[in-house]
């Protein structure tokens, strides 16, 4: 393959997937990662040959170490797979850059690149055209006192958010904060009818969920979540489970048939202030087949209650062809204490809110074919469905530098997806903005040759066979899992020498099974197979935990993902039915 066709790749966001394999590639140019995606449940190989793992921009989202294969999680059973998501930074956690955007601490004014501003002191929203509406200058004709009080609370929350954003001195891995948060809040004002007061639905949400301002900081600038709250899709829960001083309170949720976002408060924390993991189960107690995104709040993400609980959220994206049940159980466990909160989900709120974009267009790059089957839009996300040609000699993992824009030029960002022969990509949504058309653009395919092997001597920490010389074995960090993990049976694969394009992606590298020197086939440790993957300017490190016993050498792994791409400009227009 020519230079422009070499295999290249990139990391995704932190994600946990059950029952499907999430994407491994994400956009590292989009800022801090927001969600941890981990794989759970001793997943087995499905009939179609898709490995059940989690991750990635695989799928999700933003602000946190990607726990899956860099996208892509390969952990077989509750193993935390950390990779960088969206990649490496997360698909959902974008950084606000923007021409001359700034927050004035003294003047209390937020200015965006377009020249728009919100005056925290004067309560005035100014658009780029110089028009202004008073956000807090007094009652409007016909306004109700309760609505005005809700307006005041919203603007107070926005001012508080701006101040918190200004006080942040450095970005945090697992959060979309700072200027991105300020921009999100300004977007919220603009989205709520561009008027002096918020919508009745949003005002009602503020009254019903007093902690909503804390959750707004976690939502960031997600158009799907903000517009869904504005359209009265927020469902108030207000249920608490408490035992032995540990507390889990579910405040509210937003859901459609394909996605569930739960806003909760908990004082459960793992060492190092990492969040404890939450599981989402069906009425029979079975883990729901989905990818899971978790935030990692700290003291600046919202005030703690008397039990030390802070605002947090979990983002559940259903696996392809799975639908969200109407009753689920949120479960958290720490130090042997299990907390459970049952949720009844009113899916009738979003019934019928579906928009289809038929496609069936086949793309071909270097003889490799990928069909864009269709797109399906619901209030909380847009799903792009793809199909790989079975005759391909290369494994296509993603579209290179993929972006989706509407007719106004607004970019829709990827929040992850699932791998396999029928990949599905998720996008931030604009359902209520009703785009007339969407244009898919990419620079080629992210892909690598099928049928490759990686052979290592785990005792001598040597790579005996690999797709190229950019892969090596290095000593694992002793700080893994806060120094509480025995790293003697941990392999640390190191990828170096990546070019600019491939460094933006993360890779699964190896399958969830391997063969030892005697020919015996092994499953990697199910409960903690994938510890994490990390990305730096020098390269990427991918950790695999082996069984805690002496193994005949060498060990042979199937290659699950590897740097690779081929360049070819792609542009497709999609229109709804």
TrEMBL record:
Give the Pfam families listed for this entry.
DUF4179 (PF13786), DUF5643 (PF18705)
Q: Which UniProt keywords apply?
A: Membrane, Transmembrane, Transmembrane helix
Biased composition (Basic and acidic residues) is annotated at 1-14, 27-36
Residue ranges occupied by any DUF5643 domain in the UniProt entry: 356-458
> Ranges for the DUF4179 domain?
174-265
> What segment(s) does the record annotate as region Disordered?
1-96
Comp. bias intervals (Low complexity) = 54-64
Q: Give the superkingdom in one word.
A: Bacteria
Can you tell me where the transmembrane regions are? 177-196
Q: What is this protein called?
A: DUF4179 domain-containing protein
Say which species the protein is native to: Paenibacillus albicereus
Q: What is the lineage of its organism?
A: Bacteria, Bacillati, Bacillota, Bacilli, Bacillales
């Amino acid at each position: 393959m020519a230079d422009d066709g070499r295999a290249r790749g990139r990391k995704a966001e932190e994600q946990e997937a059950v029952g499907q394999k999430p994407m491994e590639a994400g956009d590292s140019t989009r800022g801090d990662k927001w969600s941890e995606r981990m794989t759970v449940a001793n997943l087995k190989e499905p009939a179609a040959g898709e490995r059940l793992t989690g991750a990635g921009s695989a799928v999700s989202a933003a602000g946190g170490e990607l726990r899956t294969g860099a996208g892509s999680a390969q952990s077989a059973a509750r193993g935390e797979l950390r990779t960088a998501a969206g990649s490496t930074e997360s698909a959902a956690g974008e950084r606000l850059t923007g021409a001359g955007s700034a927050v004035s601490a003294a003047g209390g004014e937020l200015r965006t690149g377009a020249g728009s501003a919100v005056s925290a002191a004067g309560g005035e929203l100014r658009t780029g055209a110089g028009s202004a509406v008073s956000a807090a200058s007094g009652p409007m004709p016909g306004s109700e006192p309760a609505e005005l009080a809700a307006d005041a609370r919203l603007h107070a929350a926005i001012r508080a958010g701006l101040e918190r954003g200004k006080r942040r001195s450095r970005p945090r891995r697992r959060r979309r904060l700072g200027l991105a948060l300020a921009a999100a809040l300004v977007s919220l004002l603009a989205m709520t009818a561009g008027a002096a007061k918020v919508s009745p639905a949003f005002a009602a949400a503020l009254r019903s969920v007093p902690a909503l301002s804390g959750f707004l900081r976690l939502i960031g600038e997600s158009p799907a979540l903000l517009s869904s709250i504005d359209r009265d899709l927020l469902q108030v829960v207000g249920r608490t489970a408490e035992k032995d001083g540990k507390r889990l309170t579910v405040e509210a949720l937003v859901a459609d048939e394909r996605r569930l976002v739960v806003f909760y408060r908990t004082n459960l924390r793992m060492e190092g202030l990492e969040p404890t993991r939450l599981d989402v189960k069906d009425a029979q107690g079975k883990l729901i087949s989905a990818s899971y995104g978790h935030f990692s709040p700290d003291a600046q993400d919202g005030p703690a209650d008397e039990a030390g609980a802070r605002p947090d959220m979990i983002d559940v994206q259903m696996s392809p062809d799975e639908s969200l049940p109407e009753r689920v159980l949120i479960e958290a466990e720490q130090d042997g204490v299990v907390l459970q909160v049952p949720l009844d989900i009113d899916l009738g709120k979003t019934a019928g809110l579906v928009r289809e974009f038929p496609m069936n267009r086949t793309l071909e790059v270097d003889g490799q074919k990928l069909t864009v089957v269709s797109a399906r839009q619901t209030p909380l996300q847009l799903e792009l469905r793809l199909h790989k040609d079975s005759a391909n000699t290369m494994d296509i993992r993603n579209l290179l530098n993929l972006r989706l824009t509407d007719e106004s030029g607004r970019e829709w960002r990827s929040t992850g997806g699932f791998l396999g022969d029928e990949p599905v990509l998720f996008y931030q949504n604009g359902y209520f903005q009703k785009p007339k058309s969407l244009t898919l653009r990419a620079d080629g395919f992210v892909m690598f040759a099928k049928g490759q092997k990686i052979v290592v001597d785990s005792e001598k920490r040597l790579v005996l066979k690999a797709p190229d010389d950019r892969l090596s074995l290095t000593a694992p960090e002793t700080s893994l899992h806060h120094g509480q993990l025995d790293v003697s049976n941990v392999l640390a694969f190191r990828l170096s020498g990546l070019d600019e394009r491939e460094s933006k992606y993360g890779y699964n590298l190896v399958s969830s099974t391997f063969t030892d020197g005697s020919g015996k086939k092994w499953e990697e440790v199910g409960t903690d197979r994938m510890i994490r993957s990390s990305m730096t300017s020098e390269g990427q490190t991918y950790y695999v935990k082996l069984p805690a016993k002496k193994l005949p050498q060498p060990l042979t792994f199937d290659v699950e993902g590897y740097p690779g791409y081929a360049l070819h400009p792609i542009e497709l227009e999609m229109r709804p039915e």
